[in-house]
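Annex B. Sample input.
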Amino acid sequence: MKTDVTPVRAPVGTGTMLAYGAGMLGTQIFRDMPAVLLPMFMATMLGIPAWLTGVVVLVSKLWLVVCDPLMGNLSDKAKPRWGRAPFLLAGGVLTSVGLVGLFSFTGFSSPTVAAWTVGVMFFVASTAFSAFSVPYLALASELSPDPHERTKILSFRLVFAVLGVVVSVGVAQPIVQALGGGPGAWRTMALVLGGLALASMLTTPLGLRRQVAPDATGGLSGGWSAGLRAAWHNKAYLVLVVTQFIQSTAMACGYTVVAFLFIYVVGKINLLLPFILLMAMGTFASQPLWVAMSRRLGKAATFVAATAGWAVVTVSWFWVQPGGEPFMALPFVGTLGTQEALVILRGIGIGVTNGGFVLMIFAMLTDAINEGKKLDDQVDEGLLSGIFTAVEKLGFACGPLIAGVTLSLAGFQSSVSGITQQSPEAVRGIVMAFSAVPATLVVASIVFFVVARRRTAA
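Annex B, continued. Sample output.
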């Protein structure tokens, strides 16, 4: 008598998790540099008004609302014959080249010409980024059928994401300042970070050759329209999509003005790097905690707890002040006042809480995709991942626009010669864009998530 035996699946190895996670370093660099540094570059080196810098970012991001699902659909269709490798390889190379180009040109005849030029370059670079980032996210749902193992895989992804934040937010601006803050400084910074992004993004397709190879079982069975219908009927997925849009908008609003905050409010731009490093340490150290909490309490409850914590820390920035009584000394930074020590403490809190809710929402995304496929095989990972990243990028476009409008209403003055003096009202606008606005949006996302999940379950 013949007995069918289900083969035992080997767990995903650490090497696979590292190769997958490494790609997120370059992904995060490209996501954060336009959000954090491009508005500053346009406002202080190209003379583009603050509100218009937000529009430049928004236009390219709006294109990605269509481009990301399209790339997901194309990578699904190419999966049986070519696999996801061509998208990851070409997307990684072109994204890195585009990143360098964004910060390499100055001396335009007018701010309007500069805005148009940067807008076109960002449009092209964003399209290349879509070709990489969508298939990359789709891989997270394909690497393991075990939801807890996928959470662990995504924790590696988050570690590299935080490294990307360290580089793009904590290191990039100090490099520019150290090199004099002129056009050559911006260009050198872009070359260094663009090269790092290229190396990391190519690590994933080269290190996961088997996982990104052609797969005869892949590909959409019902086409684009059937895939969209299936996505629409996946209520758990739709709740995550809307929640991610709100939270991405909130985070991008803060990212846009973080350098301004340390320059004009904290008064120490050299404090930005230790702030980011301690934030990263908080994220790294908290990953085992969040993974364990998700097993014990569930991913949704863990997500809400981490998001609420982030909102509390973010609201506290409303009372940030420079200086204070001498409190402690840090290498390469010098003596910190009590208020500056509180800035560092906030960095740890942001890192811990951000590490929790970002990990959980992507873990819940892979669960929703895999559960949806069990009910309807008309959709594959690429399309759903593309829609999700599209709304995430749309949020990262709306955030700079909201921040830019907030700064303009507060009287922020742009220039073509670097950092200039700002009025007290403009400085208060920076604080609002970094604290009150994103905290309000994040609280709204919690309310929506909880209410929507209850209605979906009813």
